[in-house]
């Protein structure tokens, strides 16, 4: 089975928000990603709206050719937005306002009653719910009890490690978590911090359904697109320049 690729376009919006411009447009980025082979588009609507906005989510839902995976905290505000917009997929993630990026998986055990309720509410709207969790057996078992059909295994710790033995150990832990989740009938995605040098071992784990990757793809696009972007500006200036 091919592993699906969800392209996270948060950081296209980060670039836009850095200047308050109308570009780059996440909708355009989504269409390019889809044409290049993305199976889905992932966006994280953060409570502080630091990158993706409500307007982006609405437009993406109207324009995406594939499917939108909305990442969000399990807050009343976000649940209101999700039940109104009804994205096909919704991934519940932990969120701290002052974090640079997501720092770990949800503590499903500590928030089981609430998450069970949220899973039921979103599922009733026809949304496929996923819980973003670490590859911890107890968290996986709690996710099963919550009734979420999907989990996304947090690969952030794996991505941060530099020692080969520790990387192998973390990969083993993710593999064991994946197996446990599959035995329990879950669909298993993975993501966070994956890039061009660390994705292959995760993509090679048998049974992984989808990888969600964003920062590394957008970062690479900035560099691979730079040559064309400079040439276009060079041409524009040369054509406009006054020749006395
Ligand atoms: C939940 C997760 O792993 C990330 O996709 C998350 O969306 C990262 O948030 P930022 O894009 O704001 O770094
Ligand atoms: N859920 C992970 C995701 O969407 C992308 O994370 P990253 O590649 O931007 O770290």
From TrEMBL:
EC number(s) stated in the UniProt entry for this protein: 2.6.99.2
Catalytic activity: 3-amino-2-oxopropyl phosphate + 1-deoxy-D-xylulose 5-phosphate = pyridoxine 5'-phosphate + phosphate + 2 H2O + H(+)
One MF term in the entry's GO annotations: pyridoxine 5'-phosphate synthase activity
Residues binding 1-deoxy-D-xylulose 5-phosphate: 10-11, 46, 51, 101
Pfam families for this protein: PdxJ
UniProt keywords, alphabetically: Cytoplasm, Pyridoxine biosynthesis, Transferase
Top-level EC class: transferase
Alphabetized SUPFAM superfamilies for the sequence: Pyridoxine 5'-phosphate synthase
Coiled coil: none
Listed CDD domains: PNPsynthase
Chief place of localization: cytoplasm
Residues involved in 3-amino-2-oxopropyl phosphate binding: 8, 19, 193, 214-215
Its job: Catalyzes the complicated ring closure reaction between the two acyclic compounds 1-deoxy-D-xylulose-5-phosphate (DXP) and 3-amino-2-oxopropyl phosphate (1-amino-acetone-3-phosphate or AAP) to form pyridoxine 5'-phosphate (PNP) and inorganic phosphate.
Similarity field: Belongs to the PNP synthase family.
Quaternary data: Homooctamer; tetramer of dimers.
Identification of the protein by name: Pyridoxine 5'-phosphate synthase
Organism expressing this protein natively: Alcanivorax quisquiliarum
């Amino acid at each position: 089975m091919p592993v699906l690729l969800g392209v996270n376009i948060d950081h296209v919006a980060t670039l836009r928000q850095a200047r308050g411009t109308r570009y780059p447009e996440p909708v355009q980025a989504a269409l390019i990603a889809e044409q290049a082979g993305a199976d889905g588009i992932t966006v994280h609507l953060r409570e502080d709206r630091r990158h993706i906005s409500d307007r982006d989510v609405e437009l993406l839902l109207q324009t995406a050719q594939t499917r939108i995976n909305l990442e969000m905290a399990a807050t009343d505000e976000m649940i209101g937005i999700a039940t109104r917009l009804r994205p096909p997929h919704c991934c519940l993630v932990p969120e701290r306002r002052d974090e640079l990026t997501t720092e770990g998986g949800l503590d499903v055990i500590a928030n089981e009653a609430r998450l069970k309720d949220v899973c039921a509410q979103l599922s009733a709207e026809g949304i496929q719910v996923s819980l973003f969790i670490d590859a911890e057996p107890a968290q996986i078992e709690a996710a099963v009890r919550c009734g979420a059909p999907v989990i996304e295994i947090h690969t952030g710790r794996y991505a941060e490690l530099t020692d080969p033995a520790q990387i192998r150990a973390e990969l083993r832990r993710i593999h064991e978590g994946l197996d446990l989740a599959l035995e329990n009938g879950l669909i298993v995605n993975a993501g966070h911090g994956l890039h061009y040098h660390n994705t292959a071992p995760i993509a090679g784990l048998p049974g992984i359904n989808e990888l969600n990757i964003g920062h590394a793809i957008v970062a690479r696009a900035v560099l691979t697109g730079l040559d064309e972007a400079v040439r276009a500006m060079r041409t524009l200036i040369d054509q406009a320049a006054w020749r006395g």
